[in-house]
Specification:
The chain is an alpha+beta fold and 188 residues long. The chain has 4 helices and 11 strands; from the N terminus they run βββααββββααββββ. It folds into 3 domains: 1-45, no CATH class; 46-107, 2-Layer Sandwich (Beta-lactamase Inhibitory Protein, Chain:B, domain 1); 117-188, Beta-lactamase Inhibitory Protein, Chain:B, domain 1. Helices cover 19% and strands 40% of the residues.
Length: 188
């Protein structure tokens, strides 16, 4: 049951005790909800395939917004990272030449790029290859730092990618992939 009152939405949630109901107030407004919904829809509308080679960087930024990360290369080129998340399954890398024009657009959360991950890589090398992780966690038991991403294998199968780094050295020591949309509810 939901009722709107004042500055929030009140929802009645059953407590663990039989026949006892507690009330939770969630501070949201229609304006905030509509703003977030519009932002989510616009983010989903970004068309990276419509960025032909030679497109000036100003047009890229006007069309796609500010990149999540800008990687500056020694040769004067740049790579702009556009993660579509936090729960998105795509991350685009837009390579700009020294003339500040598009040279290449790549969707890096794909088998093509994930298959290039190998043991011994640094955190920076992994980040430049497949983009910002969705989550970063730590395991004190094995002294590991664990990064994760969601992606689509063959554009249909929802997968999770985990890379585990040795914390003291910062090198990649394990790569794991799991299918997360199985019919039996288990990861494979």
């Amino acid at each position: 049951m939901f009722t709107e009152s004042g500055a929030g939405v009140r929802c009645r949630v059953p407590d663990r005790t039989p026949f006892y109901w507690s009330v939770i107030t969630m501070p949201t407004s229609r304006h905030t909800f509509l703003s977030l919904a519009l932002a989510a829809m616009l983010a989903g509308c970004a068309n990276f395939a419509a960025l032909p080679a030679g497109t000036p960087s100003q047009q890229v930024q006007a069309k796609l917004g500010t990149p999540g990360t800008v990687w500056k290369n020694a040769d004067g080129t740049e790579v702009w990272e556009y993660p579509l998340g936090p729960l998105g399954v795509e991350t685009y890398m837009v390579t700009l030449g020294r003339d500040r024009a598009v040279r290449e657009v790549r969707q890096v959360l794909s088998e093509e790029y994930i298959s290039k991950l190998h043991l011994g890589m640094s955190r920076d090398e992994v980040r430049r290859l497949v983009g910002r992780p969705r989550d970063i966690g730590f395991s004190d038991l094995n002294d590991e730092e664990i990064w994760s991403w969601r992606y689509r294998e063959w554009r249909v199968r929802n997968m999770e990618l985990y890379v585990q780094f040795d914390r003291p050295t910062g090198t990649l020591k394990r790569i794991s992939r799991f299918q997360i949309d199985t019919g039996d509810g288990k990861r494979h």
